[in-house]
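@channel anyone free to eyeball this complex?
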Amino acid sequence: MDGIGIAGAGVAGLHLGLLLRRNDIPVTLYSDRTPEQLGSGRLPAAVAHHDTTLARERALGVQHWSAAEYGYDVHHHYVGGPLQARFTGSLGAPSRAVDYRMYLPRLLRDFTDAGGKLDIRSIAPQDLTELSQRHELVVVATGRSGLSGVFERVAAKSPFTSPQRKLCAGLYTGVAAADPPGVTLSIAPGDGELIEIPMHSFAGSVTALFFEAVPGGAFEALVETDQSADPAAFRDRVLRVLREHHPSVHERVEPARFGLTDELDLVQGAITPRINEDYALLDNGRPVVALGDAHAVVDPVVGQGANCASYSAWQLGQTILQDPNFDERFCGKVAERRRDRVHATSDWTNLMLEVPPPQHLLEMITAMSRERAVADVFTGNFNHPDRQWDILATPERTRAFLSRMS
Amino acid sequence: MDGIGIAGAGVAGLHLGLLLRRNDIPVTLYSDRTPEQLGSGRLPAAVAHHDTTLARERALGVQHWSAAEYGYDVHHHYVGGPLQARFTGSLGAPSRAVDYRMYLPRLLRDFTDAGGKLDIRSIAPQDLTELSQRHELVVVATGRSGLSGVFERVAAKSPFTSPQRKLCAGLYTGVAAADPPGVTLSIAPGDGELIEIPMHSFAGSVTALFFEAVPGGAFEALVETDQSADPAAFRDRVLRVLREHHPSVHERVEPARFGLTDELDLVQGAITPRINEDYALLDNGRPVVALGDAHAVVDPVVGQGANCASYSAWQLGQTILQDPNFDERFCGKVAERRRDRVHATSDWTNLMLEVPPPQHLLEMITAMSRERAVADVFTGNFNHPDRQWDILATPERTRAFLSRMS
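replying in thread with the prediction:
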């Protein structure tokens, strides 16, 4: 039997593979894309890693873009509509965003440099039995090629059956940095959100603008605009949405320089949030563990998907190191160790998607706009979704937190 | 609302109460016995605390009987019948046994000295609503007065509906210490076990002999003998069981000095192992958390009950300190944090009770008798029942462990 087999070369598969290789466990990573394909093509996502994720990168020896140089320390908030609030919160330790077309191939090279095997091959559900005969444990770390369907959907943790936002993420020049530099979370109540992220990409420092459009809301049309058919019309539409709904970003736009960095630096789509069971049993009785998108798909509105996948990979990896008996007891341990963090990530994200926002979230936002200390806790908790959910899980919890803070 | 209310002044209630008081949380402990009653009367049990429990006592500042002075470092094993094995394993760090009639009142004084409130009052199920109105959180840390029945029995983790052993624990003089001093676990296959524990009691250093008799087995009669009716006959019966079934203890008996230290230093009975749900919701919607015997009752055959109760109290206490929002999310966290350890304690204990023993346990015992390193892992794992269960949960796990060790 040849060690651990991991399907999927995203952040989950790579962080797990690297952790295991750093501990001399044989690992084969199955990727349906070559390193060259991962390093080119259309923008796959716009992802920030928070300090708890960066700490894992440091532990793995893969901190190729230091947060001190490439990172930022704050989240700026703008809330439109009747609330009209503007405030800033500190992350506590810097976060950092690097284009995944640079990040993933670099970590894949770290993985093969560390003795990990790379097999360029698309894995479908019907291939898992063969993999289970080859490897001591099979991990599915991608939802592609129908692999998400291998794991049962957990209905109690998956309230939605359709996308709650339509997504449009692109890389732009011509947006001056906020002061101090940081992410801007801009909420247009009822219509959606914009997440602006300072990102390192092929062109150097660029600005990711990630629009989250409520279906039927004022900027849904943006997501459905075909950029390549009429680039100028698309650019105008982006500028109009910024001007009308996201003034705290628009005020930093230099119109003469504003535009997509490349026509491939744009991705449009939609996802349905979903929590799957932690593992599945194959017909031969062997368990297959779900990781990353095969386990939890969350809307990007608070940017937690990759951070959650990395956390989950770490818990799985530590359990492999401590208890290499790949049976149901093993799978139950993995489930227990990551459950609170993964469910809290999903529950918090789903709360942020509610239209209209629940009353206690509005109370929290109002308090953040008045008290920097409250905004700092909320912002720092982007590192700790479980602690965020401790505050936001119920109106009673939010009020108890705000009363402790005042 | 007056802080935390805890029903039950056993090790679970006391360790929890002390942890909370060390962090300035108001606590009221409800005990149906006065400190004087806890400190006198019939022997309540014969309990050894392992190093992981002693570490909690050190953290609480209640190490009144240091393991260096009162403790021991090894477990001696004797297995009769066809296996005929004799071997010793190291605990890694010393364990220690003190008579609970000294231990509990002393910790109760520590608790009240630390500002904890003591209310001498028997709590019954119908009192819990009143308590829930008085306290922010109510913890039930005793199964007495019908309180165990407040929490639903978890059938999947409670395989037995009747006692698997009849118990007879007493304190004796006239048993010379083993070399080196330690606990002896003596197994008479098919008939039961004897656990011999060096214990500190009112008379100083004494020997606890804890007979576990299989119903219908060769020493069931001992448990049913009325000691007070004919002390000499009882003593003779103990000596005969030692001679016939537990030679590694019997060889250290000095007949002229052998006998019970006091007629109250004997307890006979039987318990049905049971795992209960972690919490119950009262009619008013308030949760009540189960701890100690209200949560998990395990047979004493591997002496884990009190250690498990202390572990569980610690997890509950840490959760109270970190997230003082006493709702179902809180209860779910407590459940998740202690589940693996509590279930592993129960599953391991239940495995040790099986008659005849399962094949893989016999393989483990044989390996221990041949390899000191294997015996040391097994013995050290009295501190870590979850790790013990990692080895013993399935035949495949035991064989994988033994193959790694050889």
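from a first look: The first strand of chain A starts at residue 4 and ends at 7.
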